Amino acid sequence: MSADAFDPGLERDLRDAAARSRGTNDATPDPVFAAALRERLLTELATAPARRLGLAWVRGLAPGILASVLFVAAVFGARQLNVGQESPTITPQPTSVPVIVLPASPHPTAETATPQVTATPSVQPTPAATANPTPRPTPAPTEIPTATPKTTGPLSLLAKPCDGGVVLLWSAYDGIGFHHYATLRAGTEAMSGAVTLDGSWTTDLAATSAVDASDTATHFYRTSAFNADGGVVATSPVVSAAAKPVVALGGLTVTADAGGTRLSWSPYAGPAACFTYYKLVYSTTNPEPSYLTGDPYLAALSTQTDATFLTADLLSGQTYYLRLQAIRSTSLGRFVAAQTEVVTYLVP
Question: What is the pTM of this model?
Fold first, then answer.
């Protein structure tokens, strides 16, 4: 604090009081002087112009806050000047120190003006741009070339005349684009007016045989392989054949036997190519039983030289119509090459 901060008279009185206090430890403080000094300190400090304190900001202090500050200063100053004799030790009580809030001066001077700090706006980090995934071009579908039907040359075709019908045999198609087989039949080699032979149309690639048992006239045949659009992908040469009449094997012998009923016949003597098996057919209601019309049979015998068969399936007291048939069977049809006469038999 500068030398001219206090009134000269007040400063002199404070020095005199301090000198007396230092002169003797037993000096009794003048109560009147102590009270007057306290009052004067408070009055002088409270009314002193703000310039005597050297604090330009005191002008703005509220009266209540200023009085508290002066009180603390007066007490502290008296203790420092040793006014009166040493006082009894007093345990200080915790005192709440007022917080001084400095109001902003309407006209700050160059020495006291607080520089205004302009807050620099915080720079927000620019979020990293998320890279858009590079679109992958959709691959163009690979075009599957349309299969060009392949022909390995003409199909081979054999027309075998047999007793009871014609057997047609052809080679299997081994190209691509196959959908079905069909055999055409006509009355001339030029195949004029040809029609599809009944039972010869098939989508089975391995079915390579059929029959024609319609009559005994000469017919011309051609077998072809077709694609799904009906186009011919392979075809055979035209062949011809004529069926022979069904062979009559004579009578069928039926006799009682210790093991049941025995049936005997004369074996079929025709070509082996025209024979597949025997069928011993029977019926209790149809006087003309036949395997081709769905009647049941007692046995199927694949040996062409067989001439007898013993069965225990015929019931005693029942009347049966019995017949033996030699059958030629193919992938797409069958016919009767030879057969016996029908025998009516009452089982004993």
Answer: 0.57
